[in-house]
Structure formats: structure tokens, C-alpha cells
Sequence to fold (421 residues):
Amino acid sequence: MTTKLFYNARIFTPQDPGAPLAGASQDRVRVYENGALLVGDGRVARIGPGAEVRGEIARSGAEVHQEIDCRGACLVPGFVDPHTHMCFLRPREAEFDLRLAGTPYLEILARGGGILSSVSDVRAAAEADLLAATRRRALTALGLGTTTVEIKSGYGLDTATELRMLRVIDRVGRELPLDVVPTFLGAHAVPEEFRADPDGFVALIVNEMLPAVRQQGIARFCDVFCERGVFSIAQTRRILQAARDAGLQLKLHADEVHDLGGAGLAAELKAISADHLLAASDANIARMRQAGVVASLLPATAYSLRKPYAPARRMIQGGVPVALASDCNPGSSFTESMPFVFGLAVLQMGLSPLEALTGVTLNAAYALGVAGRVGSLDPGKQADFLLLDGESPAILAYHAGVSPLTAVYKRGELVAGKEQP
Fold:
């Protein structure tokens, strides 16, 4: 077994009790002021105070093949981004100008822009071009500390293109040092050809797309954009129930613009997460807590749309586990930066730095069903971690506008930044 010892680090890692951290426990983070991390074959072998880890190594007689002095740097788990749409061809900068002029996001969509504009691009794109564009964004995210990422389809809205997108997403995960969780989002919008028959499109998703996605075997989740003017509660319920029958786990875009009741539907169906939640009611947030649904909040979207942020403090006080995500997409949140998301969560949503750290690591891993292997630095989990140019995770919010990351490690191997000399 190849081993590496990272020592002289200020280690911050959430404590994983076997469930997402919620309420007063959202900031339950272990801190080792002069910590050490022993990595063996890409996994955490030991972690703790430096003297204790060295003593355990000596008693076990284990051989250490490489020692890396972290020189007092802050060491945290790699970021987990549980909600992105980064599989698209090109940005939509012209629509940014429209939104700045006051045109609402849903109005742009109703005019055939927004998501539907990206659908036209992706349908016409060669698979190699779509792969290159998605790969480029995934590499940017990796360089900014994201070591596990969810990527959705949803810019195809027909069976062949949705399957092509999922193939691209799968290849990104196989070709890059990045864990990728693929999600099928065929219900992202109603395409032009079904504008007069949205229920007909729902039937296509249920009767044709979902069986094809199941046969392909790439997607792990099914998501639906449950929103006024997109998919109703009844349509969303039908799609997600069929997705569950097809063996997929459930997520949904819920109550982003209007309080449609998506958060309550997530609780009813026991989805793994409900995402956005800017307009979710207190009653449905309480239902999410009772059902064990993770709230995945996307502050960069509120920032970009100039909307009030999701009520993160009320959710935490109400015992709902909060995860944080970038929502990287070409319309409402064109960013791959989890450090930016962390800063917004602290400075605009009222999370403490330790609550935000849990949100971008452990709780985000639970929102993807991958907490058994990532999200915290516990023995047996993957050695995915970051070195920061600061004393604590607060540097991610405090040093605004830049990335304070100096190194990104995936399974104990340096994949971005520089090794400490």
C-alpha cells in the first residue's frame, strides 16, 4: 500500500454521524490545530493531532512513502457540488443583458429563450463539441476545489439528445480526476414541439425517455423543474413516480420563483433533496425535515437573478440539513466556483463558516447519496481534500473575489495547484 503523510496542517472536517448534519449540529466540525492526515491507496487511513497520528504509525510499523509539510495551511475536504447544469454548448450572454433590463427569467423562457435556446444549441451540436465544452467547465470546477460534482442532462428534451448528454456526462467522469454523478433532467422545460400539449411531453418522458434512460444505465437520479409555467405538481409527481419505478433516485427543482408546493412534494415522495427553495413555505420546509429531505440551496442563482436568498437560517433553525451548490448553467448562474458559493452563503445567507463548510462538503454528499465515500475526512473515505491559503475555512468568504486554494487532491493525488515545497 502506497502511503503519504500530510502533516503540520490546520484540519477542519465535518463529523459524519451517518446522516446529514442539521440544526445546531450543522456546524459540528472537528478541528486539529496541528493535524496530520495519513493517506493509503487513495483513502484516509488515519487523521488527528499530528503527534497521535505519528504515534499510531510507529506502533503499527506502517511505512510512509512520502511526507508533505503543509506549513500550517488549512486543510478541508474537497467540495461536493450537488446541483449543476454544466453540460451545455455555449453561454447565453445576450440574455444577461435582458435580465439586467428587467425581463423576468420565466418570461425569457416563455419567449423561447432561456433553456430552450440552449436546447437548440445542444440538439445541433456534435457530441465531441459538447464533450469538449463540458470537460472544460468541469476542469475549471476542479481547479476551484470541486472534487465531486453532479451534472444534469436537460438541454435535449428529446430521447436521443438526452441520452447523448448522459453519455457526455459519463465520459467526463471517466476521463477526469473528478467523481461525476449523472442526473436525468428530461423535464427541464416543455420543448417548442409540445408547447400546445405539455401533458403529451410528460407522457413521452414517462413512456419513452425513462425506459431508455434505464436501459442506458448511466443516470443515478431523475430531476424535474417543478415551477409555474414549466411542470405542475401533478405532472412532476407523475414523472418522479415513474422515475422511481425505473430505479432512479429523486431530486427536484422546487419553489424557485413561486411557492408552488414543490418542497412539500419532495417530502411526500421522500426525494433525496429539494433544490432552490427561494419561495418555499415554512410549512413545507417543516415537512422536508420530517421526511429527511436535504435542502440544496443555490445562492449564486439568487445573486445572478437579483432575488432574495433562500431562508437558510430558518431552515437550519427548523432542523433541515442545508447543502450548497453552484447551479452552474448558462442562464441564471454561470459560475463553477464553490468558493464563491461559500462566500455568498456566509455573507448573504447568514451561515457561519463552519455551517457553510458542512454545506459544501458532507451535506452536499448526502444530497447526492455519496457520503459513504466523500464529504468528510473519515478513515476509509476517499482522500479528497484541499489546502487553503488561510488559517480556517473562513478565508473562503473573507478573501473575496479570488480563490484561496493552493492545492487540490483527489484520492491523495495532486490534481490542481502546487505541492508544498
Observations:
- The chain has two domains: 3-77+377-417, 79-366.
- The CA atoms of residues 135 and 172 lie 6 Å apart.
- The longest helix spans residues 198-216.
